Amino acid sequence: QVQLVESGGGLVKPGGSLRLSCAASGFTFSDYYMSWIRQAPGKGLEWVSYISSSSSYTNYADSVKGRFTISRDNAKNSLYLQMNSLRAEDTAVYYCARAFVVVTAPRPDAFDIWGQGTMVTVSS
Amino acid sequence: SYELTQPPSVSVSPGQTARITCSGDALPKQYAYWYQQKPGQAPVLVIYKDSERPSGIPERFSGSSSGTTVTLTISGVQAEDEADYYCQSADSSGMVFGGGTKLTVL
User: Are A35 and B95 an interchain contact pair (Cβ–Cβ within 8 Å)?
Assistant: First the structure.
């Protein structure tokens, strides 16, 4: 079945780095935009970044621009998020999601498949 | 980027109709999408392109759009519908979520 499984979360000190991974299965990974969305404890959803199917296009929320880098390996059916210069406000559950296009690209419109998330805690 | 505004909470009795609104200046030009999130679970897409329902989503979920406001309507609310609901839209600058609405089934 269609599945996304995140990994790589954990506790990291402010200023530190962490790399999240998302393993996809059950669909043709290389056909889809992919995205990261986060949710701080007790808060709402916040879009973080997306990447096009061939890695040609990426986009980031202003809150992470210059600190986070999204990438993918279509041969491994995997999505990544490299997070540098982490701050306390980056503490959240990070979800990997499959994105789909309704309006003409190059951007996705929404998310139809979500992983269960991985927790990132930034604290000294 | 723009903002989407939702009421923090909506309460309804079982069997009644719940309406959750989402307002944003860009909504006349962009489609809206709705997600349901139950505690400890990932969000689930329940409405796409303002009013379309994905396969597997019960018919009691519907969506509509009028000007700068989109509405998620749940007819004949059931206890299992108690959850947080988020609207979402997108444009060239990125993707944005509303702040979320907690639906309480009394």
Answer: yes
